[in-house]
Specification:
The chain is an alpha/beta fold. It has a domain at 2-81 and 153-240: Rossmann fold (3-Layer(aba) Sandwich). The protein is built from 9 helices and 9 strands. The protein has helices at residues 42-49, 70-74, 91-103, 107-120, 135-148, 165-182, 193-199, 217-223, 229-239; strands at residues 2-13, 16-27, 31-35, 57-62, 76-79, 153-156, 185-189, 202-207, 210-216. β1 and β2 (16-27) form a beta hairpin. α3 packs antiparallel against α4 (107-120) and α5 runs parallel beside α6. The relative contact order is 0.17. Bound molecules: adenosine-5'-triphosphate. Adenosine-5'-triphosphate (ATP) binds at residues 13, 16, 18, 36, 38-44. InterPro entries: AAA+_ATPase (IPR003593), ABC_transporter-like_ATP-bd (IPR003439), ABC_transporter-like_CS (IPR017871), P-loop_NTPase (IPR027417). One of its GO terms (molecular function) is ATP hydrolysis activity. This is ABC transporter ATP-binding protein. Pfam families: ABC_tran.
Length: 242
């Protein structure tokens, strides 16, 4: 099943064309990476898929429907790159608040909180105020809230940005492990190509609002005679793509 379908997507901001005919598709069960240089159009694409921005032109389907409908929104989690946290509530209270927004005061909400606490993995610190959390702890709670509601699609914009090596790896392990066990399809971005190789099954490489390459990491590495995805990225972006 196709979870995300983007076809000839164009997005203009005033006179500036941020997306210039983007096309790619994400299948159920994938961890799909949207990669590209700064300003390539990744966040703009994510915001359109999350129903926060309207496309100028093109076809965008999430779970077979236009983004923004209540049904799609209920089945999609979007974690923005700069997602903030509430300072004066605990991680636990935050997870409970999100779960109740999704499910109301139900048994389902309680189960989601249990899963969220497990994913966050903060032990007793989950009951401390979030203002005392490190950047990595805040991100763990944010990733937990995105996955715990078992969305069909989780859109994670640079989930490990600004984290140290250990914290980033832990977030990666969470994404990989829980995406599989909870049956969540993931669309994520990252500037760390080692990370993308580690966690993503397929990628689309976007630059200046266009997809220059799409495919399995291993196939792209082979196609470009490269040692790794970073080298593919460099060759594609410098060479202008296919
Ligand atoms: N609301 C907006 N108004 C005007 N221009 C915008 C707006 N949002 C994004 N842009 C522009 O669109 C282009 C794509 O931005 P976008 O944030 O999607 O890139 P990105 O690939 O996510 O970059 P980064 O890796 O730096 O986060 C950029 O040139 C950006 O300045």
């Amino acid at each position: 099943m196709t979870v995300v379908l983007v076809k000839d997507l164009v997005k203009d901001f005033g006179g500036f064309r941020a997306l210039n005919g983007v096309s790619f598709a994400v299948d159920e069960g994938e961890v799909f990476g949207l990669i590209g240089p700064n300003g390539a159009g990744k966040t703009t694409t994510f915001r359109i898929l999350a129903g926060l921005l309207y496309p100028t032109r093109g076809e965008v389907l999430v779970l077979g429907e236009k983004p923004g409908s209540l049904r799609v929104k209920k089945q999609t989690s979007y974690l923005p790159e700069d997602a903030g946290t509430y300072r004066n509530i605990t991680g636990y209270e935050f997870l409970r608040m999100v779960a109740e927004l999704y499910f109301g005061k139900t048994r389902e909400a309680e189960e989601a909180v249990e899963v969220g606490v497990e994913i966050a993995g903060l032990g007793e610190k989950i009951h401390e105020k979030m203002k005392s959390y490190s950047k990595g702890m805040k991100r763990r709670v944010q990733v937990a809230r995105a996955l715990m509601v078992r969305p069909k699609l989780a859109i994670l914009d640079e989930p490990t940005a600004g984290l140290d090596v250990v914290q980033a790896k832990e977030i990666r392990d969470i994404v990989r492990e829980y995406a599989r066990s909870l049956g969540v399809t993931v669309l994520m971005s990252s500037h760390n190509m080692l990370e993308v190789e580690d966690v993503c099954t397929r990628v689309a490489l976007i630059d200046r609002g266009r997809v220059l390459e799409e495919g399995h990491v291993r196939d792209l590495v082979e196609k470009y005679g490269a040692h790794n995805l970073e080298e593919v990225f460099f060759k594609v972006v410098k060479g202008g793509g296919r």
